[in-house]
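# step 3/5: fold
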Amino acid sequence: GVGLMQDLRTKLPWYFSDLKDGFDIKVITTTLYLFWGAIANAVAFGSLLGDNTDGYMGATETMLATAVLGMLYPLLCGQPLTIMGATGPIAAYIIALRSLGNSVGVNFLPLYAWSGIFLSIFLFLGSMFSLSNAIKKVTRFTEELFSVLISVIFIYSALEYFVKIFHADDRGHGEALAALFVGLLTCFTALGIRNSRNGTFFNQWVRNRMADFAPVIAIGVGIGVAWALMGRYDDFELGFLEVSEDGITSTTLGTDVRPWVVDLGDIDGAGFGLAVVGGLFAFIVMYFDQNITVRLVNAREHKLKKGGGYDMDMMALCICTVLLSLLGCPWMVSATVPSLNHCRSLCYFGNDGNAGNSAEEEAKLEEESKKALQSIRNIMEYSMLEEGNGATGTAPRGLKRSNSHSDLVKQVHEEVSSAIAMLSLPTGTGITGCLEQRVSPFLVHLLILLSLVFLRTALGGIPMAVLRGLFLYNGWVNLAGNEFWERILLVVTDPAKYPNRSYTKVKPLWKVHAWTLTQAVLLVLINILMRSPAGFVFPVVIGLLHPLRLYIARTGYYTAEEIEMLDSHF
């Protein structure tokens, strides 16, 4: 418990500040922005789980879990900038656990509840023994493969839904085509609006706000078109989200069929033993899903000052997971995309929110600035002496007598860039700080709870095709900036158009392709395993990714420098 106590000593002095800093206009705009994305995520995953659990864990359970635990978690955790929610890997594991229970004749909900109880025990042990520290050793090889896996789960789930519609006996060919059209329209509308951030219409503020609300606008367009089609043609209907009609106290199937509290006694000895293994494998998935997200939020580029608390996060997850398991609601973790959107929405850019530096910080900044300016001055003075054939002494780092003027310009640019990075200076629109507080995540999930109470009828009018279109969108945008995905496309990319990444400097290039092929084979293996009768054990492969990466580094096929260019830490 040493790490947990250290987290408490780090975070508790900031707790009052976390609440006081929440009274800011930025919190209001962030809450309204994140609410739509969070509720869309909850509704989409609720529909997916409902389809694959025969309604025993559907939209009502998912939304209620998202709302209540989403309010509790930021009050207990170490990094409140993350947003709790259902995720692709967790949903895939729950579905695999359900399939395993059916195959061995164990009731799903008792198996799930006991697996969750053992999962909570493992989370408690992980918090007490600071197992989260191991995630700091994980490199891009594992993190980016896991990120692409999330995208594949999103995209595969969406495509599987549309394929099933075309093969459904109770659906006409026209209805299947309409569902596909609505789904693709939702996806491409969201993508188009999101990409307008770098467009030419309106000003930058308007484009940014439109891009922020891209999924919400797209959902509205998809719902409008779907209802217009159903109003235009007779005997034409699309599938809708199933939400309980009996109020917030009722489950998706009704409390007569599926009560809120799971009967823990409805399981035999074999099922109990299976639950122990189920909890362990769930811990592996949750460990990576949670900690990779928190690590991305804690990245240096976000300029956080209050520190993180990985062990506090694990303890908060332990408490939340026990409650979710007893109620038969889906397990929640810090969802990657909403968490990053939340953090970046609270960031300050340029001089926004700049309250000034202390005298000590100003003195240090002045000293480092003098060093940077002197370095640039040395380069310029040496180049002028060289032109006059009077250069003497040692040339500045990286500058030789034979350097051309273009080399000189590059050297000056490198020095300036290095100085900016070293001093953490804003580069026009760079991040200069972040409003760290616990209020906005609480408010986001409070709004979800209120919508579940007062907007149930409206939620029941959302076509499933729209939600699957949102899955396509989430899967695609999650690939942005992923080097593994970029290297997959490198095979068909014009060499003159290669991205300015360190891996393009590895020679010969077949080493890059071999590295990418290794990750691709593992990705395919995990996906095949997930959808096989042995899908229950796919977390084991995820847990072996980093040891495999270490083994590859020791084979001698790559030098230490090549490994650094291919697989640097975040």
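# step 4/5: annotate
The chain has 23 helices and four strands.
# step 5/5: archive (pending)
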